[in-house]
Amino acid sequence: MEITVDIESATPMFSQLVMQIKQAVQHGKVAPGDPLPSIRQLANDLEMNNKTVAKAYRLLERDSVIQTKGYRGTFIHPDAMANCTVDLNAWVTKQLRETIATFRKAGVTDSEIRIAFADVLNQPQGG
């Protein structure tokens, strides 16, 4: 599996990594159980910040495309193929669009929506 990052792209580098790893799974270039490079190794290979690679790995692990096995490393998840089609960003965007449309229909201004959204995001989780 070869990963390349276009630093000139409008797509964030972590998103490019996520997309390329998902595509590698979908096209059979990697299989469940296959190892992935460590965060440090991939960051060095791509000449990018470790935090960028770590963010991509966290998102892939959240989506069950990869799994981390402690000191043994990071591997392609057994259910990776089925989980590659999950796009939480698209789902969140759809949900927000629908909610904002409901607010606007009720007469709430965009400014009021922004303030309420920021307030909710700034609240401690569970609150």
TrEMBL record:
GO MF terms, alphabetically ordered: DNA binding; DNA-binding transcription factor activity
Top-level taxon in the UniProt lineage: Bacteria
Entry keywords, A to Z: DNA-binding, Transcription, Transcription regulation
InterPro entries tied to this protein: Tscrpt_reg_HTH_GntR, WH-like_DNA-bd_sf, WH_DNA-bd_sf
Record's signal peptide: none
Domain HTH gntR-type, first and last residues per copy: 11-79
PANTHER family in the record: HTH-TYPE TRANSCRIPTIONAL REPRESSOR YTRA
Protein name stated in the entry: GntR family transcriptional regulator
Species assigned in the record: Marinicella litoralis
Lineage summary: Bacteria, Pseudomonadati, Pseudomonadota, Gammaproteobacteria, Lysobacterales
